[in-house]
DNA sequence: AGCACGATTAACT
DNA sequence: GTTAATCGTGCTC
């Protein structure tokens, strides 16, 4: 995906990422998944966005140019993968919450064992585990040609006609309104893939 | 230096 | 439905 794809209003980017492919190359092995769920976090005003704390060592990448990975650590054990959006200087990103793995399933199965396929990548920390994404990717340029982590549009003929829904973002327990309820979570159901129509 | 908490997950009652 | 796991981050003293 070209960098300008990410240089837009973040909720629009999150919506348009549904159905795109997240690709990971490791040891010559290609793994990829169809993005099924994503959330927008936008600006210092958004009380759910990490940038509400301002520009800190942690949030710095979000202030950088679009198309780069913002990977953060939480709950003492989990990594989360975001894609930086909008113009440089404006902090915003899209959190990838679920994908359906179509390539490299053997590798992912090994890494996510003993979970069943529908549980491999149906959560933001799970997909990082499955595709081996951690802090080494913080700041990584996802638009770099030949990069080992990147986004691709589905090839002609392989496009799915996904119906994209929206809802409030997940896990914002202590976030004040209106940020807690704004419908910046986007998702689509794919037959056979993990269910993402959670409440 | 100390502290409360988190854009979660898996296991358990 | 409830809870332990586990530590970086940002804030207060």
Structure write-up:
The protein has 199 residues and is of the alpha+beta class. The chain has three helices and eight strands; from the N terminus they run H-E-E-E-E-E-H-H-E-E-E. Strands 1, 2, 3, 4, 5, 6, 7 and 8 form an eight-stranded antiparallel beta sheet that branches. Strand 4 and strand 5 form a beta hairpin. The radius of gyration is 16 Å and the shape is globular. The protein starts with 9 loop residues before the first helix and ends in a 12-residue tail after the last strand. The mean pLDDT is 95. It binds a DNA duplex (13 and 13 nucleotides) through residues 39, 41, 48-50, 53, 56-58, 72-78, 80, 82, 95, 97, 115, 123-126, 129, 169-175.
């Amino acid at each position: 995906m070209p960098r300008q794809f990410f240089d837009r209003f973040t909720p629009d980017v999150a919506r348009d990422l549904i159905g795109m492919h997240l690709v990971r190359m490791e040891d010559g092995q290609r793994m990829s998944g169809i993005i099924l769920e994503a959330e927008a976090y936008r600006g210092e005003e958004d009380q759910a966005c990490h940038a509400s704390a301002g520009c800190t060592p942690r949030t710095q990448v979000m202030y950088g140019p679009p198309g780069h990975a913002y990977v953060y650590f939480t709950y003492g054990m989990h990594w989360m993968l975001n894609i930086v959006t909008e113009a440089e200087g404006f902090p915003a990103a899209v959190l990838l919450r679920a994908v359906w793995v179509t390539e490299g399933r053997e590798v992912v199965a090994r890494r996510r064992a003993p979970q069943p396929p529908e549980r491999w990548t149906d959560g933001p920390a799970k997909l990082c585990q499955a595709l081996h994404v951690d802090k080494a990717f913080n700041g990584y340029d996802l638009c770099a040609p030949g990069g080992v982590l990147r986004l691709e549009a589905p090839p002609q003929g392989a496009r799915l006609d996904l119906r994209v829904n929206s809802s409030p973002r997940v896990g914002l327990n202590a976030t004040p309104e209106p940020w807690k309820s704004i419908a910046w979570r986007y998702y689509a159901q794919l037959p056979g893939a993990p269910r993402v129509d959670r409440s």
